[in-house]
Structures are given as C-alpha cells and as structure tokens.
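ARCHIVE CARD
SHELF: 3
SLOT: left
DATA:
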Amino acid sequence: MLELITAGGWLMVPLLLSSVVVLAICSERLFTLNERKISPPHLLASVWKQLKASELDTAKLRTLKQSSPLGRILAAGLGNASQGRDVMKESIQEAASHVVHDLERYLNTLGTIAAVAPLLGLLGTVMGMIKVFAEIMAQGTGNASVLAGGISEALITTAVGLSVAIPALVMHRYFVGRIDAIVVGLEQETIKLVDAMHGENLDDVRHAQSADSSSASMSGLVS
C-alpha cells in the first residue's frame, strides 16, 4: 500500500483524505437518516390524544420538540395553533426548513468530493505524462524504468480518483432520494395535524389513533 501511495505521487494524499471523509459522511448519514427516529410511528396519534384530553402543556410541548424532527415540527405548529391556520402553517414551514437543512448536512461536501476526485485523478494523469515527456526530451526513450514510473503515476492517480468519486456519487444520490422520501412523510403528518386542528379531515388522525389502539391491544394479548 505504501508503495502504491508513493508511486502515485503527492496527489495521493488529498485523494486518500477524501476517501476517509466520504467514509465518515456515509457512516454518519446512514445512522442519522433513520426514518423511524425522524418520524416515529404513531407520534401524531399520541399528540392528538393529549390534545383531546387537554394534557399537552408547555412542558410536554418542550419534550415533544426535543423528541424527534417530526416532534420539532409538530411542536412549532401547536405552539401557534391559536393564532390561526395561516400562522400555524408558517410556523410549521419554518421549523421544517430547519429540519430539512439538518437532514441535508454534509451532502454538499459529499457531492463536492464526487465531482473533484476525478479531476484530481486527471491532474495526476497530466502531471505523470508531463514527467514522461520531460524524461523523453532529456534522455530519449532508452530509460524504460523512468518512463514506466511516470506512466504508473498517471494511471494510479486516475484509478484512485475514480475509486473515490464513484461511491461518493452513488451514496450522494442515495441520500438525496432518502431525504426526499422522509420529507414527503413529514409533510403528510403535518398536513394531518393542521387539518385536524381546524376541523378538517379528521379521519386520518382517527385512523392513526385506532391503529395505535389496536397495536396496543395486540401487545396486551401477546403479553
């Protein structure tokens, strides 16, 4: 491995650092973008039950806000529910924008590495070929080992650059799609809350409540 790094030249250093950053970002995002943690099942039904029982006080709103990203959005809407539908929706949109920003954390870095890594490899290729032609001009074509070294440097950096860029690009696309799906789910839950708070389309919330109750009943039977 050390010989490979040495043969690739100094451009191997940023390429290897980029590979470490890609691995770190992918590991962190895979752990963070857990849909069940971001949008816990039956959270909306639980909040609605507390609202109907007049149990949702300031302390519980604070707990809801800290519980999950969905809870943060719901708490923002509930905190301004008395101000009217429009104000409630604006509060939800503002909280949702912060949540989406957190979900997209590090994706710009991942996309930048996916774009830059092949260029670093190409730069290594160009520098390696310049070295080859410089040696040809200085010594002719008789010194095969020097020529092979320059060509090797060019090929190694290109290969490493592509090896870093391809997984980075694939994971970037994967995370973007995953975030889009999570955001759609968050939007659906918050729309149910807004409609329920203003006396519209309560069926979705009631259905979620009944599903939650059924699940609890089944758990009791199993136990």
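SLOT: right
DATA:
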Amino acid sequence: MKKNILYRLYSLIFIGMCIAPAALMPVVRSDASKEKRDLAEFPKVKTEEGKLNFDFFDQFSDYFSDHFAFRQQLVTLDGHMKATVFGTSANSGVIIGKDGWLYYSETADDFLNVNTIDSRGISNIVHNISLMNEFCEDKGVKFLFTVAPNKNSVYPEHMPFNYIESDRKGNYELLFDKLTDDIPHCDMKETLKNTSSNMPLYHKEDTHWNNLGAYAGHAKLMNMLGKEVCPAGNWSIRNDRQGDLAAMVYPADKPDDTQYYTDYQFTYQYQGRFRALDDISIKTLCEGKDGSLLMYRDSYGEAILPFMAECFGAAEFSRSVPYRMDYIESSGIDTVILEIVERNIGNLQKYAPFMQAPERELPDISGAGVCSDIVIEKEDNGQLVHFYGVLGDGFFSGDDATILVTAGDRTYEAFNCFEDRLLGREGETSSNGFSLYIPKEQMPDTDNIKVTVVRNDGSAVTSS
C-alpha cells in the first residue's frame, strides 16, 4: 500500500514537472533582452496572403522552445554545469575562458589570426579611410580614426588553453601597419596594453571595456586631438553589472560583474529625445566648453560617451551606417572621430560613406586594357545619385587600386566598397567592389558610365 502511494506521488510529481513549463507560460515569462536575440513570436493561423499557415506547428514549436516557463533558469543551470564540469559553453556565441572570464565567439578568428582580410582588402580599407580624412581636411575639420580592441587582444591570458595565438598578423596589425602618418589614427590596442592599472580595463563577463578602459581610451584620443582630458575623479567599485556574455549563458543570474564608477560630477546635458546609450544618435551640450564633435561609434562608444561629451561644447554620437559625412558641411562640426571594434574592421570596405565623391582628373588611358566583367547599379538618394557595383579580377593587379568613375565629362574617385546588401549578396565579402555618390545636378542626361581602375604600377584597365 505504501509503495503504491509512493509510486503515485512520484508519478504526480513527474507529470507536474512536465506540465508546469507549459501551464505557467502566461505567468513566468522570459526576458528577451538578456539573450541578444529575438525570441520566436506566436505563429498566426493564416499567412499575410490569407492562406492557411501550414508551418503553424513548426513555428509553434519554436515559440514554445523560447517561452516555456523557467526556461532561463534551466538554461542558466545547464550553462553552469557545462562550464564547471566540461569547461565548455552552452551558447555557441560565448567562449568560456579561465578564471570565470567570458569571450565573444566572433572574436576567435581575430585571436587565432585566421580568415584574415586579404592584402588588397586591407589596402581598400586604408584607401576608404583616406578619402574620409581628405573630405574632412577640405572642410577644415580634424579627423581621427581608431579601433577598439577585442577583449582577448588585451587579455589573452584568460582564453581557453586550446585557443593558441599564432605568430601571423591579424586584421588589426595588418591595418595599422598599412596606415601612414597622413591619416590621423590612434593605436588603441597599444594604448590599453601600456596603461598601468592594477584593475582590468575590460569586463570579466562582457564583450566591452569597462569605464576604466573607456577613460584610458578617452585620454589618448583627447591627447591626440590636443584637447584637455576630462578629470577622472575618484573611482569606486560596484559589482552591479550583468555582462552581455553572462546574460547569454546564465540569463537568470543576478548582475555581479565589476564596474568602476567615478565621482566626477558631469555637467553635459542630453539634447532632444534620449532613451539609452545605444540610441542611433545622441546629442549633448556642455556649457563653457569649446568645439563640436561628431563621433561615429559602435557599442564601445557607450562607456566613453560621458567623458567625450564633457569635453566639447556640442557633440553627436552616431551609430548610423553608412556614415553621413555630408552632415559635416552644414553642422559646424570641427572634429570627427571614427571608432570601430576590431572584429568589424572588414565593414570598412562594405558601406561607402554618404558624401559627394571627390572629383579627379582622368589620367591618360590611351594604352589602358579593357575588361567588360562589371556589374554596376544605380539608385537615387535625394540630391546625390548612388553608383555601386563589383568588378572582375581582370581589372586588378597588386594590392593598391584607385577606382575612377567617369560620368559625362566629369570623373570621380570611388570608395573601394562592396555593397553586399544592395547587390543582393548579403553576407558575402569581396575586395572588388566600388561605391560612390555623385551630385544629381552634375549628372549628364545619359547613364553612360565608364569605370577605370588605376593599378599601383601605374597601368590602367577601363570598362570601355
């Protein structure tokens, strides 16, 4: 009799555990913001065309997998078990390092120096940065380029033992070896590695630098610009941050990552609608300060923003892509900073900045070769016409290439950018792309466009 009762009790508990995740879904909800992805939505019975949705049950399965009750608690338990017992991550986007350090999986190639950008791709990126610098110089605006290093570039010692750094150069080193003094640039990796601090400059459980690291980066940028650095104040420590990587692996854990806070009283104010530091555009004013800053940045710009905003009378921090360089002409900006994280260096040969292409003299191409392997597209962008496309390998020889586009009797220099999205080839990479914006009033009536590639040895190849 007692055994029967125990069997029934065990069965009830087992059935209850199986039913609870579904029965409690309306009450216990998952926090989608912690996992850096969009959770599946509840499927519709009919499609947008009004037809029966035959994928309903498959979509419902995905929805249930993302929303069942206690999901994040179970994911967290699974994450801790795998990290503790096997030293592996339950989330493919996170690398479990030593001593509790977490790293972003997308930085693994940079750490191992594999799948690097080819030499012409690096030359393309340098060329594109050079054109942005030239545009700023022509407007009397200071320009400064920098790359925020991946965490494992500054703290490699906490990476798992099976991730072994190679002696080959990575994208960061390949790029900075190619940059010349003609392009103002800040080697942020060297800056952070040489910063004397008994406290880490990056979060242990997050992708990004902490406030100390951001301040060290700010100080270097301001020194290079010849401007006064924001006072540091006194620093205090609080374990109150939930790192973005920790949230991906241990979403139910309470925030316990270390953050450093300064007691300096900032005086800048936000202008317009401010929601959060990840807004596409954030504008600030700081009374009593001189200068106007436009900083193109990514998520690394969030921690550095307060220090930069405090040092300029007016500042805008923008995450928009492509970069709106045309905005400089009408805004009174005197300083432009372009910051990008190391793992995204390749994006600098993807999207051409929105600005008028520089006009050039077409060299003598009487002896130029001819290649018809070309794709060229056109789109209207208000006052500018956007031409973009991709060239065949026959146009190129060597690393350096200047791509000139002739429309009517005017010739312009293009950005060496492969617009993957616009070309319907999203996710692909190529070092053969070109992209530029030409003023509509300078366009001839005909769409007869000629593309000429001037190689580094002085030879040229034209499309006609």
